[in-house]
Every structure is written in C-alpha cells, then in structure tokens.
Amino acid sequence: MQTFAQQLDSEADPQSLFTLARAVEEHMEARVGTKGIRPNVDFYSGIIYHRLGIETDLFTPIFAMARVAGWLAHCFEQYQENHLFRPDQIYDGPHHRNYEPIDTREPHSD
C-alpha cells in the first residue's frame, strides 16, 4: 500500500500527503520503533482513497467492508468452538434482545 500510495501521490510537492505520512511514520519509528509498533495498511490506504477522489466520509465504511468477513468469521468461531476469546473481547451484556425501533426508544442519559 505504501508503494501504491507513493505512486498515486507522486507530486514533487513537499506538502503532499505521502510526504507528510512518511515524515510521521519516520518520527514514530524513531520514538517507538523498538517496541515493534508500525502503521497498519490503512495508514496509507487513506492517501490512496483521497487520490482516487473518494470522499473522506467513505473511508471508514470502505475500511469496515474490507474486514467484515474476517470479523464475522471470528464471531462464528467464538460461538462454535469458544477458543478465540480474548479478555477484552468477552461480551457480558444481554443476549437475544428484541429490536426496538429507534423512534420508540427511551432517551439515553449519561
């Protein structure tokens, strides 16, 4: 993705999104690179979406669509085999609740 983002954003402009992204990545690598923290694929996919003319509001839905099959597979495996649960992923809320249309719900107060 990084190479493709660079190709699409190949302007010589020092203020290009790719140039900025590389500067951020290099800065973070210098600060936390020893911990093995690296940007994921979507760090550069945003630049690609932008250069392709996709509206910013669509970036997150595109990200989610690309991953929903994997997320569902994890859910199915958890229910069938109960072996992928991680401590921060165990749902302990109510199950099998009836759907209530949003316009009939009580307002939520925090």
Topology:
Blueprint lengths: L1 H7 L8 H16 L9 H10 L7 H23 L29
Helix pairs in contact: 1-3
Number of domains: 2
Q: Count of helical segments?
A: 4
Low-confidence stretches: none
Termini distance?
41 Å
Strand content: under 5%
Tell me the helix content: 40-55%
- Average pLDDT taken over every residue: 83
Using the CA coordinates, give the radius of gyration: 20 Å
Q: Which series of helices and strands comes N to C?
A: HHHH
Main structural class: mainly alpha
Number of strands: 0
Main beta-sheet annotation: none
- What is the 3D shape? extended
Structural features, described:
The protein is an all-alpha fold and 110 residues long. The chain has 2 domains: 54 residues, no CATH class; 32 residues. Helix content is 51%, strand content 0%. It starts with a helix and ends in a 29-residue tail after the last helix. The mean pLDDT is 83.
Record keyword descriptors for this entry.
single chain, 110 residues, mainly alpha, 2 domains, 4 helices, 51% helix
In short:
The chain has 110 residues and is an all-alpha fold. The chain contains four helices and no strands. The longest helix is centred in the middle third of the chain and has 23 residues, at 59-81.
